[in-house]
Structure formats: structure tokens, C-alpha cells
Fold this protein.
Amino acid sequence: MNWNVYLSGEIHTDWRQQIIDGARANDLPITFTSAVTDHDASDAAGDVLGAETSNFWRDHKSSKVNGIRTKTLMDKCDVAVVRFGDKYKQWNAAFDAGYCAAIGKPYITLHAEDIIHPLKEVDASAMAWATTTGQVVEILKYVISAR
């Protein structure tokens, strides 16, 4: 079986690539998907529908267009990894975790210990909480190959 793993969350570090590299190093049969990680491209996703004078409506249209991608990919994934970084608050990641919980999609949270308290409900619905990308790779290795 080829697994489909959706990588959600902060876009300012290389955590996605670390997980992808770890999975490849362990020969795990995984296809990785993700939201658009180019901040400017994501913000402009709705611009094709016409210019807006209000940032609210520009963001609204772009979130809807981006939502087509994220909802489709999360619906199709076997498991999601939701990363919360320390530089910015990732409201989109919290939303993705809530969506996964609502549809019964297993997810792993990835974040530092210093934000356990604000993420207590998110972590309570997660199947696992990891603090490193290496731990995520080990979890994936176990659930995919039982090794």
C-alpha cells in the first residue's frame, strides 16, 4: 500500500523536507501532499477572480480557492502531520487539525513543549504528538511497516 501523508502548518522552516527525506531514507511508500507553501502565491490565489479594494475580500476569495486544494488533499490522505512553529501563530494549522478531527482523519501534531497548553485540545484529538521531525518519521515507519 502506498500511503498518502498531508503536511499541514507553518511554512517558514524546512520541516516538510526533513520528513520527506527521512521517509525516503527508510524506503517508506509515501506520497506527500501539502497546502501551497509559497506565502505570496497563497495570498494571491483568489486574485484571478478580480481585484478587491478590501483586504478582507481578497483574503476571503483566496482562502476559498486555497480551500479547494486543502480540503481535497486532506480528504484523500491517510494521515496528516500538523506542524505548529514558534515564529508565527498558525491559525490555518489549527483549522486543519480541527477538520481532521471532525472527519475522523488521524493526525500527528508536531510542536515544541512550550506550546502544549494552548494546543491541549488539538493534541487531545491527535493520534500522536511529536517534538521532532525524526519522531514523525519513526511514527510513520512504525504504522506503515511495523518496524
About this structure: The CA atoms of residues 56 and 77 lie 30 Å apart.
